[in-house]
Amino acid sequence: MTMATNDSLVALSAVELKRLIEARQISPVELPEACIARIVADACLQLAAASAGLCRV
User: Fold this and answer.
1) What is the pTM of this model?
2) What distances in angstroms separate CA 56 from CA 16, 28, 39, 45, 52, one per listed residue?
3) 2 — pLDDT class (breaks 50, 70, 90)
4) Burial class (CB in 10 A: 0-12, 13-18, 19+), 10
5) What is the C-alpha separation between 42 and 54, in angstroms, rounded?
6) Domain assignments of the chain as residue spans, ordered by start
7) Cβ(4)–Cβ(31) under 8 Å?
């Protein structure tokens, strides 16, 4: 990732992401990769919490 971490990318607005892509500060490929990484991380946390009995699924 050239400019930002996965978490900071997924927190930006669509307008800001468009500006960063147009300015070539991030690659158009980086955004979906960051979104997928965030989804995977959230799923892992939910699975860990469920297996520890901390939440009900």
Assistant:
1) 0.66
2) 36, 37, 19, 13, 10
3) very low
4) middle
5) 15
6) 6-51
7) no
